[in-house]
Amino acid sequence: NAFTGEFPISVTRLARLTRLDLSSNKFAGPIPFAVNNMSHLTGLFLQNNKFSGSLPSINADGLDEFNVSNNSLNGSIPGSLSKFPKSSFAGNPALCGGPLRPCNPFFPSPEPSPIPPETPSEKSKNLSVGAIIGIAVGSTIIALLLLLFLILCLFKRRSQQPKPVTAPTGSVPPAEAGTSGGTTERERNKLVFFEGGVYSFDLEDLLRASAEVLGKGTVGTSYKAVLEEGTMVVVKRLKDVAANERVFEVHMETLGKMKHENLVPLRAFYYSDDEKLLVLDFMEEGSLSALLHGSGVSGRTPPNWDSRRKIALTAARGLAHLHVAGKVVHGNIKSSNILLRPDHEACMSDFGLNPIFSNTASSSRFSGYRAPEVVETRNVTFKSDVYSFGVVLLELLTGKSPNQTSMGEEGIDLPRWVQSVVREEWTAEVFDVELMRYHNIEEEMVQLLQIAMACVSIVPDQRPIMQDVVHRIEDVYRGETDDGLRQSSDDPSKGSDGYTPPIELRTPARSVTP
């Protein structure tokens, strides 16, 4: 046969199926975890296809025949499948573990404690009586010297008692720190998890996990780590960290307390001289940047207007929560740091990391999204966050990436390009051509454009605060019946009703002031 497409998910509903043979076709995409629904499988044959991604952990007790050879799979072989021979996995160069070659960890494993050399027993038998007496006397003298040294140290320590000393290890109570052990655990090469976490693995589990590079961003490299039991997390390997261990720990505790449905939660962190790691949830839908611009994915359908409105509102709510409840500046807002759930609700990621980096490292961190004042001062603020969010709104409306090398002949940035088009009263030319197929949305698009233009004002004090941005985007939904987006709450990060739209949002559809 020559069947194409992804793994036929409907097959997994056949719970009593005992043998599934999809071999020698042209199926592509991942092998879904849902194959575990077929708990009576004794044989699974997927060889000679184009399946990609990592192997799920398959726990069918009766599975005694298995073959995924000659595909494009990567990552580690789950423990539940390691009983099968090499031939079952041949032709997948990126697979590792189990019967194949060991997997290479994506960061160096902690060095083992040095093992003291064994004392040769042979030589002790040949020692003379004089040598034994000499050793005994020498040992006694050394012991006395050590005892004297300890007494002197204790005396000196007591004499210095009134002087300030460094806080002892683990002095932060777990309830306040939100971690499971503080400095002591990191000294033992342990991940520090936050309270209420959903994961139960340690550093050694991560070292054994297969890793796939998701992207190299401005703060470091992100990996998708697939643990042996099939759990997927994102491990962010930070670079150019200037903060010392204590400052890093305290700052991570602050970020770990940021809980909101439109923020990607920080689950754990790790600090050593060589590595600084963050562990976060894996979001299968990817980023807004990939959704809008493809990111090399063929066949991706551009988002419709409803999806773009929803992304704009939910991302604004997440950012407003950071500003209002957490008093935290995001500092790195861009479409690749806005991750999506399957229902296209947005979650802000990589927030609040600027304080742990040096100023020199942050100078190139916001290409295309940074506010004009950040270029000069290199200091991010709530107002510079609003500017960057305004650029994201323009990206949603125009479909253009702010990181494009040129826009028109002059090579100007996205906000200036939009302003120039609007100034010539060609407002309709601003919008993404993919949106032109939808009817009766022009007024809403113009309203959102007005909000974006207010956010990217050159003068910081003329930009709205994020609470107002949330209210204004909600106003775009006036007359809509989407109760899921129109929540009633006093917290602007959760939505609000009864808000009177500003005068500038009641202008005619084509009247936009840059």
UniProtKB/TrEMBL annotation:
Pfam families the UniProt entry points to: LRR_1, Pkinase
Region of interest (Disordered), ranges? 162-184, 480-514
According to the UniProt entry, its GO molecular function terms are: ATP binding; protein kinase activity
Stored Gene3D superfamilies: Phosphorylase Kinase, domain 1 (3.30.200.20), Ribonuclease Inhibitor (3.80.10.10), Transferase(Phosphotransferase) domain 1 (1.10.510.10)
- Keyword Ribosomal protein attached: no
User: Which portions of the chain have biased composition (kind: Basic and acidic residues)?
Assistant: 480-494
Q: Where in the cell is it found?
A: Membrane
Protein topology in the membrane:
Single-pass membrane protein
Q: Where does the chain cross the membrane?
A: 129-155
Stretches assigned to the Protein kinase domain: 208-477
Q: Which UniProt keywords apply?
A: ATP-binding, Leucine-rich repeat, Membrane, Nucleotide-binding, Phosphoprotein, Receptor, Repeat, Signal, Transmembrane, Transmembrane helix
Q: Does the keyword Transmembrane apply?
A: yes
Gene Ontology cellular-component terms for this entry are: membrane
Question: Superkingdom, according to UniProt?
Answer: Eukaryota
In terms of PROSITE patterns, this protein maps to:
PROTEIN_KINASE_DOM
| UniProt similarity note | Belongs to the protein kinase superfamily.
Protein's name according to its UniProt entry? Protein kinase domain-containing protein
What is the taxonomic lineage of the source species? Eukaryota, Viridiplantae, Streptophyta, Embryophyta, Tracheophyta
